[in-house]
Amino acid sequence: MSETKDIRTGTEVRARKAPPHKLVAAACVAFVAAMVGMAYASVPLYAMFCSLTGFGGAPRVSAELPQGTSERLVTVRFDANVAPGLPWVFKPEQPSVTLKVGETKLVYFRAENTFDRPTHGQATFNVTPGNSGFYFVKMQCFCFNEQELKARETLEMPVVFYIDPAIEQDPDMASVKNITLSYTFFPAKPSASKAAAVGDGAGKGG
Question: Which listed residue, of 37, 48, 52, 188, carries a Cα 20 to 30 Å from 21's Cα?
């Protein structure tokens, strides 16, 4: 530290040195890294929160069967999309179904890989109107896992769902007669276990 004189008191005052530039830079890098880490960690937490609560139009996920049915009918329409970069044809086997509230329904989507080698995809999903997400419950869905399609392979993928009878107690949902379940498949990298298995197979074959 350097020393200067206080003009008012005549006493010597020690001046603090500015922190080295390298130290400031390191602190900034550490802060940015921590924020990025928190952002990545929040993605699965946010997805889990949405699946449990139906927040943001995300259907709830549950293994529990519905508690009874009612005579109220709801039509569920299906929307299927593929993001750029994934050479798939993806569509529902039927455009819509009509079911009773509390009735469990099984439907199928079909995906075809038009490429001459294996490709991988991961689906995102939501329902509209957004406030119906809390009452749209999926018991089984291909969207829970990464999907692999071999060259020119076609795959039928099931979805099991129901409309929670609790919807009858929500006055804001009284006028809802139509719900749209939408999926979008995005390109995905093969998981580490699959990549290792492919590598082992290639090594044995050589």
Answer: 37
